[in-house]
Each structure stands twice: as structure tokens, then as C-alpha cells.
Amino acid sequence: MRIAFALAIVSFLMPAPLCAQTVVYQGQLVCEVAAGGTRPSQAPVTITRTGSQVLFERAIYQEGTREIVGRESGTGTLSGGQFRIETEGSFGAQHMGRQTVRGRYEGTLTDGEVRIRGTRDLVTQRRGMGTQSCTGTFRAQGR
Length: 143
Description:
Blueprint: H1 2-13, E1 22-31, E2 41-50, E3 53-61, E4 68-77, E5 82-91, E6 99-109, E7 113-124, E8 128-140
Antiparallel strand pairs: 1-2, 1-8, 2-3, 3-4, 4-5, 5-6, 6-7, 7-8
């Protein structure tokens, strides 16, 4: 009985394994010029890992401003230090027609860093559809 109690106390006092903790990574997603006139962009992105789940989140800004007009987000699963994420988002005024973004990213994740690359498709009323190639490196926060 004493041994079981001692083991329970030791287990409680030990920190959880890193893979079970939540780790937040932040950095810039850089996307190239796309066909259809979509301009290159650089946007702050937050990637959060909780266990084997990976969450991608970014605000979509009104062009040329810091006004948030939408969000792009998606989830994936981490396996062997690699993951794939498919994202979706919409933005713009309802009366002008919602514009959409769909991303497909893959990457690697360590305790200190995430590296991703992929593409995103933008569909806008003014410019039609364009596909951008994107890359990013994100650093763990609070480490």
C-alpha cells in the first residue's frame, strides 16, 4: 500500500511528457505572387501543438491595412515529426461576395521549431482565382 501511494505521489509531481503539453509557435508565412494578380504576402501565423494535434491559425487583413476581415485555420496530425494541414477561410464584405482561401501545407515539427511549405488557393471577385506557393518557419514561444 505504501509503495503504491509513493508511486502515485511521484507520478503526480513529475512533469507531463512534452508531447502531451501544448506548445505555441509563431512566425511569418511568406507567399509568392500568384497567377491572376494576387500579390505576394507575408502574414503572422500561430501554430499550436497539443499532443499529436497541430492547429494552424492566421488572421486575414484588408489589403494595405491592419483591419482583420477574416481568418484561415485548419488542423492536422503529427506523426514522426511530420504533419499535413488543410486550411479554409473566408473574408471580405458580404455585399461584395465572400472571398475564400484554401491551403494545403506540410511540414516538420520539433520542440523548438516548425517549418512548413505548401500552396493556398485564393478566390476573389476582383482577381479571380490564384494559387500561391508559401513557406514559413515558426519558433516555439516561452522556451
